[in-house]
Amino acid sequence: MDAVDVPWGGVxxxxxxxxxxxxxxxxxxxLSHAWLITGPPGSGRSNLAYAFAAALIADEGDEAxxxxxxxxxxxxxxxxxxxxxxxxxxxxxxLVERAYFAPSVGRYRVIVVEDADRMVERTSNVLLKAxxxxxxxxxxxxxxxxxxxxxxxxxxxxxxxxxxxxELADVARLIAERTGVDAALAEQSARHAxxxxxxxxxxxxxxxxxxRRDGTLRAxxxxxxxxxxxxxxxxxxxxxxxxxxxxxxERDEAERASLLHTVGVPEGGPIPPxxxxxxxxxxxxxxxxxxxxxRDGIDRALTDLQSMFRDVVMLQFGRDTDLVNAELAPxxxxxxxxxxxxxxxxxxDHLAETRRNLEQNVAPALAxxxxxxxxATGRTP
Length: 381
Known about the structure:
The chain is 60% helix and 7% strand. It is of the alpha/beta class. It folds into three domains: 3-162, Rossmann fold (3-Layer(aba) Sandwich); 168-221; 226-377, no CATH class.
């Protein structure tokens, strides 16, 4: 990568946003003290946030410092990317404390919050004072899918930068370049991921993920009654649980081994009472991360179902192009003919409600059972 491409070379398909932030980083008069970067999942919010942080912290041309920021190791960068259901209030308080430190070696101190939409109201309120009375030479960069995901009091104190959704063909081309898969698989993965770059890359490179997705959609299409609904709901939850375990198990074990090595406990040896509290704290953190991973997996399945029933509505209104799930076209045509559009819209409404309920900690199996009963009957339980 040429020096001119650092730090913006990792930002893809957002030229207008890059131009805005590049200008702000080089002109103090155009720099707001707090920014909110919004865009659909996979649009590159976090990549852009760290590129902006690098441009703010490092002097122009200081490629080494920029790369240090991009790697997350620069002392003037504080970043929060939660892997839990919500951002905890103690985490927010630590961010605010760091915000009042002067930059140690860089031009600015930058606080990046990748998942600002995961703050509950009382946690958001912790940030308000820092946003209302910004410390000198500190810049906040929040990331969220939409500005509607944050409290109005937060939104009024930030400058919002909205990212555009990338074109399907552009995502497919990027996936083919990154992974080396053929053009047809890259296009299918980009389409099934609904242009989410990270998910498209996973679909392109992991046959098991593709099979799970296809199996979930076909199972839901086959639901005919309450018994089917209960069975398929259990299978979707189990599939998401297995996927979450596969993603976290190796990391959990490595973290535990690293902690025990650090405190001098030999492999397989007993854990001294003095160390047990640290091990228990790590296990609790891992449990919270697993819960988030499970909920993300179920939400991904619901997103896939939304795409399928969106395809059905498209067919019912005479549009048979641009289907997300073109491979299921015969089944989708049959469903479009069998159902009135009103029934499909009821299912889509219940899908959106189910996603909201899961964010409120409703039991996943019960939420999915209710949804699939609506699929089977056309009525909300």
